[in-house]
UniProtKB/TrEMBL annotation:
Transmembrane segments: none annotated. Residues 230-363 form the Acyl-CoA dehydrogenase/oxidase C-terminal domain. Belongs to the acyl-CoA dehydrogenase family. InterPro entries: Acyl-CoA_Oxase/DH_mid-dom_sf, AcylCo_DH-like_C, AcylCo_DH/oxidase_C, AcylCoA_DH/ox_N, AcylCoA_DH/ox_N_sf, AcylCoA_DH/oxidase_NM_dom_sf. PANTHER family: ACYL-COA DEHYDROGENASE (PTHR43884), ACYL-COA DEHYDROGENASE FADE28 (PTHR43884:SF20). It holds the Pfam family Acyl-CoA_dh_N. Keywords: FAD, Flavoprotein, Oxidoreductase. It comes from the Bacteria. This is Acyl-CoA dehydrogenase domain-containing protein. It comes from Pseudofrankia inefficax (strain DSM 45817 / CECT 9037 / DDB 130130 / EuI1c) (Frankia inefficax). Its cofactor is FAD.
Amino acid sequence: MFFALTDEQRALAETVRDYLADRFDLTAVRAVFEDTAGDGHPADLWKAFGEQGWLAVLVPEENDGLGLGLLDAQVIARALGAGAVPGPWLATVLAGEAVRLAGSAEQRAAVLGPLAAGELVATVALRAPGKAFDVSGVGVTADADGRLTGTASPVEYPAVARLAVVAATEPDGGIGLYLVEPTAPGVTVAPHTSYDATTRLGGLTFAGAAGERLAGSSGDVLADLNRRGAVLTAADLVGSARAAITRTVEYDKTRVQFGKAVGSFQAIKHTLADLHVAVLMAEHAALYAAHALDEALPDAELAVAVAKAKANDAATAATGAMIQYHGGIGFTWEHEAHFFYKRAKRLVGTFGDSAQHLDRVAALSLDN
């Protein structure tokens, strides 16, 4: 079977890349990265996200969205990774997915329209500190009245989000997803420091905070949400990996040592060729995983695990090689290599590290 992006999806990718290259390049990224006291949420960039429809990609048309699929969303995620772009795009899109998958008609109408327009910044709080991205990792409990207790961490952009989707274990042992305002009584936002300053992280602690349960919540919905998060994170990672390889190849074509471009040395060019293959395979895995979820294919869960594991490994290797093969300048603060390396290092553990996903691959393969 021949599988490729459509012309419309390729055009979307080009539009996002061109906009970022023109309006939010690595100089703008550095300004956010070095402003450690800032909220990491550039207002003009967020406005553009809304105007360009990048927040509306998964929102149904009846809720003022574009009604597209995860395959289209991963196109955007890949471009954001390639530009090391800051902002709560992923967190907001996943919160919208939670409402789309589990919300009532009234909840979808109230949340998805403003979210698609960029009027609402949202986030997801799905696990306890250090726990797995699955039902076993949920660290918040809900009582019969929907009052939440416990801690979720790390959470992306909790300080700027106006709405959080919180996973909680309910009295019957099931899983519920609850809408909570981070500024509501009983909610405490604790900022976290991070080596990756292209994001802002924090923890949410709940002490009897009131939550509005999404009507169709279940453990299955949480699992689906985690899979979607894993695919979009994998796309971001392969975007970073591809940018790292491309920038490194271009640099090593012009950097001269011993009278020759260093890219002509076998030790370098063979390694970069191997990395290109690894990144290419990870790109294809992420594409197929998004397609498999869009089409509810029988191997979707396996495809997601393969994609995230491959993306983790490819991005770690490619961004590390970017530092190494830029020579001395690659190790400096002034060079952009550390943006990609630090972003990849953080995202490798987001929505499951390689060990978790490889365990899942083994389990699914043996079960079948």
